[in-house]
Amino acid sequence: MIDYRDAKPADGPELAQVARRCFTETFGNLYRQEDLATFLDAAFGTTGLPSHVSDPAYTVRVATDDGAIIGFCKVGPVVFPGEWPETTIELHQLYVLGPWQGEGIAPVLMDWALGTARNRDAKDVILSVYIDNHRARRFYERYGFVEIGKYTFMVGDQPDDDRLMQLTL
Fold this sequence. Notes:
The longest helix is centred in the N-terminal third of the chain and has 16 residues, at about 10-25. The protein contains five helices and seven strands. The radius of gyration is 15 Å and the shape is globular. The protein has a seven-stranded mixed β-sheet with strand order 1-2-3-4-5-7-6, with helices on both faces. Helices cover about 35% and strands about 35% of the residues. It has one domain: Aminopeptidase, CATH 3.40.630.30. By secondary structure, it is of the alpha+beta class. A hairpin with a 2-residue loop joins β2 (about 60-65) and β3. It comes from Sphingomonas panacisoli.
């Protein structure tokens, strides 16, 4: 049975492992190993995702199966370059491990993310998605997200072509 709860600081190491696994399984073949390692360490190392669990600017929700984290969603302040209204919140990550994809976990986490944004009086939710991640793009479009621009997402020294998407609440 899948359970959902807010992440706790003690979840940091397990969250980092899940994030590394999801990212590597989905995108690992696109990068040189040194670029991938640099990105994974920055995004999911001790100063990345694990530290955000105890940072009040971020909120992380986990999905568990028999106590093990199998997916998560993180929302927080917008980190994209440019001027963003204070009423905009970013959906930073929504990851579900492969064996549980298609099991309805992502919609539960997305509903939580949008509810969290509304509870914070956000007017818009913004995210970036890799241009060739068609499954994720279709998922976000079902929720009403629309493409609003391009974003260069760096993985180590390699630039990726991402798209910014926005949902007005």
